[in-house]
Amino acid sequence: MEPSVTAVFEPVTCTWQYIVSDPSTRSAAIIDSVLDYNSTTAAISTRSADALLSIIAEKNLNVTLILETHAHADHLTAASYLQNKLSDPQAVDGAGSVKPPICVGERIKQVQSTFAAKYGMSEQEYAGVFDKLWNDDEEFAIGGLSARAVHLPGHTPDHMGYHVGNNVFVGDSIFQPDVGSARADFPGGSAPAIYDSCRNKLLSLPGETKIWVGHDYPPSSNSPEDSGRAPRPWATVDEHRQHNIHLRDGVGREDFTQMRSTRDSKLSAPRLIDQALRVNICGGRLHGFEKDGDKVVKLPQGMVAETMASWRGL
């Protein structure tokens, strides 16, 4: 069976969020949700997450899983907020109300350790915040749909994709064919690993397989008559093999690695890197982020510059 997929684009961070459901049982999973962040006031809001909840209610879906592809460095996850909103206080077992588990790859521990040290966090703040840590190629179900967690290292060491039917939700492993590939300069990142993940795992799948991306950044048009294309959530394996500007057929591992490393050396830090990682290694939990009744993220001044400099060994 094939899933029903609802793709919701968040334009501030250019993030694709997904609701993947089993048409027969209405069981569903949420993939890579967004918590809104105002960089001017440092305030957090839930507009994007509430829009997902409205779709879920409208379609009468039962969310059984909240999936993260990795610890995002460019947006805050709404996983914890959604989990609390989707808990069922009537379905009580020995441990209390039933909540959809928040799931991520088991190598999240490596990322948590790296950034907890950077932000001066205690282990109590992040240990055990995720309900399920996937092993490589671990199988699971969304209602009656069979799914598999696929390790896709390169962008980050913890990165996972989710293979459901004829679809793979790949986070930041690969972008649309006219955009190319994700950066590989984060701690534990690797350009050769991105190449291997994309060419050997994703682009070796049947040509009609849909690859659903975590972001889309449509290239700007050079023509005033052409406004360019709209953000697009998926392209097929065949489209990538023929047209992906970084990973199409004929591009070798060495050439890709050189291109990716050169591009990454010129990129600035993601705008919300520290705010995002400070929250995301905690699964989206916001305990202690309070100021005048608002949820905020507070970080030491200059942290972004220090983080990127330390990553690149400057």
TrEMBL record:
<feature type="domain" description="Metallo-beta-lactamase">
    <location>
        <begin position="14"/>
        <end position="215"/>
    </location>
</feature>
<dbReference type="InterPro" id="IPR001279">
    <property type="entry name" value="Metallo-B-lactamas"/>
</dbReference>
<dbReference type="InterPro" id="IPR044528">
    <property type="entry name" value="POD-like_MBL-fold"/>
</dbReference>
<dbReference type="InterPro" id="IPR051682">
    <property type="entry name" value="Mito_Persulfide_Diox"/>
</dbReference>
<dbReference type="GO" id="GO:0006749">
    <property type="term" value="P:glutathione metabolic process"/>
</dbReference>
<dbReference type="GO" id="GO:0050313">
    <property type="term" value="F:sulfur dioxygenase activity"/>
</dbReference>
<keyword id="KW-0479">Metal-binding</keyword>
<dbReference type="GO" id="GO:0070813">
    <property type="term" value="P:hydrogen sulfide metabolic process"/>
</dbReference>
<dbReference type="Pfam" id="PF00753">
    <property type="entry name" value="Lactamase_B"/>
</dbReference>
<dbReference type="InterPro" id="IPR036866">
    <property type="entry name" value="RibonucZ/Hydroxyglut_hydro"/>
</dbReference>
<protein>
    <submittedName>
        <fullName>Beta-lactamase-like protein</fullName>
    </submittedName>
</protein>
<dbReference type="GO" id="GO:0046872">
    <property type="term" value="F:metal ion binding"/>
</dbReference>
